[in-house]
């Protein structure tokens, strides 16, 4: 049931007062004119609905669509149920339609003839390839150290965090660098091979120039980087993710997000040596020894140590 407004109560009080004391006194008492009183006395039939404001919408308009135009729109919509507004308007214009796009839009909205948009095809992700032993594939990426963390002598410099995560055990190795280049990547690779207790079969990276020249222009794209040359010498396969798809390197990307929350948000660095020491301590204490749900609430260090010692897994 529609609500009773204040105007309706005013009109009812006005009518009752006019019936008791007359129209002139009612007009003077309620500060209105006699025509207003007579109009509502004629309209009032004893119900609240008779005291409501009627629609002021015109019954017709001199520029409204003609019967031929309406027939053309209905026939065109029946043949093109999925056509958008502009495409639908162009098709009508080719058949003699003279109205504007806003006019057509208002008509379609009023008659509920808007386009029926088909559903987008459902995205079906590929099944995740689960690793079965350490070293089967290791994700590598580079993180730029936030400039707000650099103070005193380190202010204005640029430091980089190279990160490697074993997909099987989530064991992580990080190292600080002052340079973001293929030479730094090659150095990090050599240190990673020495630090990881198992043979490494595959290294997965993005398409950055510090790893590959795959997306470079000209003849540079055919030249392998120092990093790729060293991978071939170590008999390690290099896997590149799809361009502009960082989720394919999701484990290392997620770890970088956690680094922002748990490390960079609360630490400052006075020099490169200070940054390197704090990063090493944080990774050893707060990451590799931290229990994780995907590992059955075991730490990466425990998973890797147990596999090396007993050849068993908890996941």
From TrEMBL:
<feature type="domain" description="Integrase catalytic">
    <location>
        <begin position="130"/>
        <end position="308"/>
    </location>
</feature>
<dbReference type="GO" id="GO:0015074">
    <property type="term" value="P:DNA integration"/>
</dbReference>
<dbReference type="Pfam" id="PF00665">
    <property type="entry name" value="rve"/>
</dbReference>
<protein>
    <submittedName>
        <fullName>Transposase</fullName>
    </submittedName>
</protein>
<dbReference type="GO" id="GO:0003676">
    <property type="term" value="F:nucleic acid binding"/>
</dbReference>
<dbReference type="InterPro" id="IPR009057">
    <property type="entry name" value="Homeodomain-like_sf"/>
</dbReference>
<dbReference type="InterPro" id="IPR012337">
    <property type="entry name" value="RNaseH-like_sf"/>
</dbReference>
<dbReference type="Pfam" id="PF13518">
    <property type="entry name" value="HTH_28"/>
</dbReference>
<dbReference type="InterPro" id="IPR036397">
    <property type="entry name" value="RNaseH_sf"/>
</dbReference>
<dbReference type="InterPro" id="IPR001584">
    <property type="entry name" value="Integrase_cat-core"/>
</dbReference>
<dbReference type="InterPro" id="IPR055247">
    <property type="entry name" value="InsJ-like_HTH"/>
</dbReference>
